[in-house]
Amino acid sequence: MAKKAYDYLFKLLLIGDSGVGKTCLLFRFSDDAFNTTFISTIGIDFKIKTVEVDGKKIKLQIWDTAGQERFHTITTSYYRGAMGIMLVYDITQEKTFDNIAKWLRNIDEHASEGVERMILGNKCDMNDKRMASKEKGEGIAREHNIKFYETSAKDNICVEEAFMRLTQDILRKHQAGATQDQATTGVVIPKENRAKPANCCST
């Protein structure tokens, strides 16, 4: 019997308003490429990348979702099965930051209860056009106990670090849950306390 090429398969989801750079982040992480001519994602697209974390090979299935309101129901249907969600806003467009609360409610309503979440303030290379301060991003992440990074797909700032940290958090939660499940029967396992938000892009 052929050995599997990976130990775990994790489904990740990129969500957020249209134009915040979700597709650029995806291609930067999956292909180490940046293209300014991406058109808006129509519905759903995904990329596959296999990484190694803590000695385990993880196959990541990363779904890039449309941010436009008219595709809202398509996006919602793809929350199912997601183990990690990256909520992306554009630091140069304050409205996209203001909509984080809406997207967080979406996650609460439609995603699995134990899903790992992360907030990304994208386009931190455009600090001269910044409309949403880093402190505001850190604040909302702290309020919801979610990790936070500022990223730049264009300049490749903290993109891989954010994806790898999310993958690591999912793996460790999965392994902790499996260990506890083996050690207990009929016992409710308490939710893990999430680590305090981290940040990366220093501007």
- Euclidean distance between termini CA atoms: 51 Å
- Helical region count? 6
Amount of helix: 25-40%
User: Major sheet: order of its strands?
Assistant: 2-3-1-4-5-6
**How big is the Rg?**
17 Å
- Look up the CATH topology: Rossmann fold
Major pleated sheet: 6 strands, mixed
Main location: membrane
Keywords: GTP-binding, Lipoprotein, Membrane, Nucleotide-binding, Prenylation
Membrane topology: Lipid-anchor
Protein name: RAS related GTP-binding protein RAB10
Brief account:
The protein has helices at residues 22-31, 72-77, 94-98, 100-110, 134-143, 159-183; strands at 8-15, 44-53, 56-65, 84-90, 116-122, 147-150. By secondary structure, the chain is an alpha/beta fold.
Describe this structure in words.
This protein is 33% helix and 23% strand. The protein is of the alpha/beta class and 203 residues long. It has a 6-stranded mixed beta sheet, sandwiched between helices. It starts with 7 loop residues before the first strand and ends in a 20-residue tail after the last helix. The model is unreliable at 182-199 (pLDDT under 50).
Characteristic key phrases:
alpha/beta; Rossmann fold; six-stranded mixed beta sheet
Write the layout of secondary structure elements.
Elements (H helix, E strand, L loop, with lengths): L7 E8 L6 H10 L12 E10 L2 E10 L6 H6 L6 E7 L3 H5 L1 H11 L5 E7 L11 H10 L3 E4 L8 H25 L20
Parallel strand pairs: 1-3, 1-4, 4-5, 5-6
Antiparallel strand pairs: 2-3
